[in-house]
Amino acid sequence: MNAGSSLIATLVTLTLIKSTPIIYAALGGVISERSGVINIGLEGMMIGGAFTAVVFSGVTGNPVIGLLAGIGAGAVLGLVLGLAATIFKVDQIVAGTGINLVAAGAAAYALTLIYNQPGASPQVNALGNGFWVLVALAFVCAMLLHVVLYETPWGLRVRACGENPRAVHDAALNPLRLRVAAVAISGALAGLGGAFLSIGEVNIFSDGMTAGRGFIALAAVIFGRWTPWGATGASMFFGFFEALQYVLQGRVGWLPADAMQAVPYIAALIAIAGLVGKVRAPAADGVPY
Amino acid sequence: MRNATRLLGGPLGAIVLAFFLAAIAMLIAGVSPVDGFWALFVGALGGRQQIAETLVQTTALLFPALGITLAFRAGLFNIGAEGQLVIGGLAAGALGAHFVAPGPLAVVVLLAAGFIGGGIWGGIAGWLRARFNANEIISTLMLNFVALSLASYLVSGPLKSAQAAGAETAPLPPQSWLPVLIPDTRLSIALLIAIATAIVLRWVLSRTVFGYDLRAAGEAPEAARRGGVNMPRMTWLALSLSGAIAGLGGAALVTGVLHRFNTQLSPGYGYTAIAVALVGDLNPLWVCVAAFGFGILEAGGLAMQALADVPKDAIHVIEGLIIIVLAARRYIATRAEGAPI
Amino acid sequence: MDGVELDLRAHEIHALVGENGAGKSTLANIAFGSVKADAGTTQAVGTVGLVHQHFELVGRLRVWQNVLLGREPRKGWLIDASAARARVLDLAQRNGLPIDPDALVDELPIGVQQRVELLRELERDPAVLLLDEPTAALAPAEIDSFFTTIVQLAERGSAVMIVTHKLQEVISYSKRVSVMRHGKIVAQFETARTSIDEIARAMVGGEVPHVAQRQKTGLQPCVRVEHLSAGTGSVAIQDINLEVRAGEIVGIAGVEGNGQTTLADAIAGLIPYAGAIAVDGRIGIVPQDRNREGLVLNWSIVDNAMLGRQHLRESRRGPLLDRAVARADAQAIAQRFDLRAASLEVAARTLSGGNQQKIVVGRALLGDPQFVLAYQPTRGIDVGATALVQSRLIEARNAGAAILLISFELDEILALADRVLVMYRGSIVAEFSGQGIERGRVGELMAGARAS
Predict the structure, then answer these.
(1) I need a labelling partner for B217 at 20 to 30 A (CA). Which of A208, C310, C330, C413 fits?
(2) C190-230 per-position pLDDT tens digit
(3) Has residue B13 been placed in a domain?
(4) Which residues 226-265 of B are in CB contact (within 8 Å) with A?
């Protein structure tokens, strides 16, 4: 009995921990897409957040400063994407892919530059048990985003941007500015998710530590029907599979560890396939205004 | 049909900008750009060995870039070339360890295995998009990770070579190796196969009915649909072929360079190939030129690191920036209505 | 646009007319401020409101959210939804435009959607109200109620400008008329002192080109549609039965949004359907939206001429395209339709709307198909191209083709069709044939009046 309940406890705890970075990134995805900008660069923003958090925590010795720096880095990358999508009217998907590559390359580059060791940074001060605050904060953010999107004027205008930016323009508002703001916020959220990975869950940055979570978050956005709570639930769904993989690995000998690692990704595949027909993205999603 | 001014404004301009940024990166690293670029070019083109290595990198990039080009022209975004390449290489490596046959036949069979393997991998995403309208950006990327897990599992377990110390398949018998193009180098005739593929692709796109349908699907999906193009079938075919070409590249790496399969097969060729395809303006012949340019960067980057102390990841930053700059052109027709994302 | 001078006065309805492509919408957009003029100034005493030809509403939001976007009443940080609803109801009542503030715009019929757009502009209390083709999507009864509101608005002091091509409305409701042609104002009239003919002549700058004559033909059935049902929601069609015979034009009259697209898509085989569709021979289709559904704008005229025909045995040599055939086809279209282009290799994007439409229609008529489905074949093109397209359709009819014409312009249907079917809410509600089809009666049925 005891072993059973501790197994469940581990599973629940791990699910929460594994879901948190995805929730942040997915919330970012929701607000970006609701404003009409597809944010393929969530992965890169997470990397940026993770790396910057480690650097600043290392330099100042204070993980909270690292956290704020990580959020800032994500916001900056979000700003870049937002401006690219609105002022320069670039193809959002291609730009997002570029951001991912730049962030990954820059992080690896800076690793060697700053620390002289490729692959991983030295250990820094992490949040310790304070990371549970971030876990709880993820759900608070989900609720905040829900309220903002559906109950505030700004949220209404952002949603209108994603459906018909011309209508927003006709209402004497600036859809471009709204979009840039939304995407910058999405970057900040993704950066926060990344920082959780590097100084929350562990205390280093290693090459490739985001492992595609930015894209799983996108699957969560679709799976969650572009709503904050939906995306949160979907993120937990994927987080559960990641946690399951860890839990089963030690216990079920015959399941190969490598194969198990594929489980969250396969879950994401099934999730986006399982929505036939009825799914409708914001009408102006991906279309430059 | 695309004229020179368009190229100058787009890809050429991006390359110039990239070099400018590279110079800045070098300055940051405390290296004079002159030294840095010199190390780069010497490292890439300074001698027979260096040129051969550059061409090896060119070939490795060209296959997935051609696959991505095909998908792009059909209006599909394939970022799964990395996984398709790995699966293709895995198929070739797994089969090659045990397949015994006279020289040319063995090589052809292994390359075909890579083509089919990559084709199946791309086909999964194609099927998901055709049948369920599942966004192929997400599915191809998820499949990348699945491919890596699968490969990792297989080469540490069932396919592990008895002879080798590390996780890899058994080495290929010499008759299954691709003939070498420049003696005493790693460069095989895979380069010629890649260029031939580019020529065939160009011909298919511009002269065949299938190519016509594919381009229509990419540029005007609603008009294509009404113009008799079977869109779900085209989606599936395009992603399958795209994956197949990338898989062929993986098999070429296995039979031509490594002579075995392990998970270090590709240092991200499938991702860099996206930049290559864009710089090549999605035109198979220009993609060859772009692949050569990036081949110089990849080969020279290592030398740059050794000689001038500039970390080779700077190259990847530059490649990413090129993509962002080139995103200014709309490469993908407005997505068909109802497509999520 | 060139040297345009226009003044709109309070208490007055001013009509701006001109054929398609004359620059009317551009002028309206400049006056509103959404488009920047290259030279010149726009001055307005007060705010300007613009109701677009194609509504710019947010379908997935509610009426009150659309009307009050940007001016939302607040309760602290949040939107005060009940105050918003009350404000919209009040505004609607004051202007005689009944509406349910909580309805989702997507679910409203087009006539009511227009009310939402109108309310949105009225909310800002505009001194000047611009209306771009406001009655294009309205049934005759809705048009009457619309103009009642507009006339009231003008009486209360607003300056109203209506951009329209419906000269009857101009005569009935406007005080002054300005005529645009090729980006210039070529004439201005006091409405009371002019006539439809005079205005029409000013629009075209000469005589209106005439359309080929219909000749008597034998009547073998070619297309039979039985118990056809398809689609979902407000555009679904139910139990459609119709027949088109060789050598006749059957016109489907109806307001946009009553299932015409569903019907066309079902016949074209693009959507699943229940029931039977039998066509005796080949089909040529003119799609509704030439830019999205008919052409690949980046391609040349030659490549576009091939679209839809590339799988035919004649067009290919094995897996290869026979470019010579494509070029011959393009040349045939160019000749038959008087295509004005520098060469056949230019991109379709560079052509005018009329020339683009000629490619689409010409392609549909290539090879003399037995059945032609023409959906809005003269949408948004100039008078000359319109006359040409209509003539070719009639000539096809005279040569024995069965033509199903779907159009939102009742005048076009009445001019071309041998038989007229009225479509309303997904069903055929009436059929008219022969001479003397009563325009008024058709209009009533289009709006949903009970068939007797």
Answers:
(1) C330
(2) 888 888 878 877 877 666 667 777 777 667 889 999 999 99
(3) no
(4) none
- The residue type of A157 is R
Cα C93 to the chain's mean position, in Å? Answer: 30
C79 with A156: Cβ contact below 8 A: yes
Number of Cβ atoms within 10 Å of the Cβ of C88: 25
Banded model confidence at residue C2, pLDDT cuts 50, 70, 90: confident
β-bridge partners, C160: C13, C129
Low-confidence residues of chain B: pLDDT under 50: 1-2, 5, 330-341
Flag if C310 and B228 touch (Cβ within 8 Å). yes
Residues 6 or more apart in contact with residue B111 via CB below 8 angstroms: B92, B193, B248, B251, B252, B255
* Residue B71 forms contact with A (CB below 8 Å): no
Mean pLDDT of all residues in chain A?
88
Residues C19, C23, C25: CA angle, nearest 5 degrees: 95
Cα–Cα dist B116/B251, whole Å: 10
Pairing of strands C176-181, C184-190: antiparallel
Task: For domain C212-282+367-452, give the CATH number.
Answer: 3.40.50.300
CA distance linking residue B21 with residue B38, whole number of Å: 16
Q: Report the alpha-carbon distance of residue A240 to residue A12 in Å, rounded.
A: 8
Q: For A15-273, CATH number?
A: 1.10.3470
Partner residues linked to C406 by β-bridges: C252, C375
CATH number of C12-204: 3.40.50.300
Chain-chain contact of C56 with A170 (C-beta, under 8 angstroms): yes
CA of A93 to nearest chain C CA: how many angstroms apart? Answer: 21
Average pLDDT over residues A262-280: 75
Residue matched to tokens 């208490």: C11
* C342 pLDDT tier (thresholds 50, 70, 90): confident
Nearest-CA neighbor of A283 among C60, C344, C189? C60
CA B340 vs CA A282, B90, C269: distances in Å: 9, 32, 24
pLDDT band at C380 (very low <50, low <70, confident <90, very high): confident
- Residue A70: predicted pLDDT: 96
Residue B236 lies in a domain: yes
Domain extent listing, chain A: 15-273
The count of other CB atoms within 10 Å of the CB of residue C312 is: 15
Residue B231 and residue C4: Cα distance in Å, rounded? 47
Helices A42-60, A213-223: crossing angle, 10 deg rounding: 130
B306 within some domain: no
Per-residue model confidence as pLDDT tens digits over B55-111: 999 999 999 999 999 999 999 999 999 999 999 999 999 998 887 788 788 899 999
Please report which helix (H) or strand (E) contains residue B194, including its range. helix B190-207
Q: Among partner residues B133, B327, B335, which is closest to A286 by beta-carbon distance?
A: B335
User: Among all residues of chain C, which has the CA nearest to that of B206?
Assistant: C321
Q: Do C61 and A163 touch (CB under 8 A)?
A: yes
Same fold, C12-204 and C212-282+367-452: yes
The one-character DSSP state at A120 is B
Cβ under 8 Å to B: A residues 87-126: 88-95, 97-106, 108-109, 111-113, 118
Residues of chain B positioned with their CB less than 8 A from the CB of A108:
311, 313, 316
Give the ipTM of the model, two decimals please.
0.85
Parallel/antiparallel/unpaired status of strands C249-253 and C402-407: parallel
A:210-249 residues touching chain C, CB 8 A cutoff = none
Residue of chain C with shortest Cα separation from B216: C296
Burial A143-182 (b: 16+ CB within 10 A, else e): eebbebbeebbebbbbbbbbbbbbbbbbbebebbebbbbb
Cα of C233 to nearest chain B Cα, Å: 16
Distance (Å, rounded) from C-alpha C297 to C-alpha A155? 37
Structural domain containing residue B272: 59-299
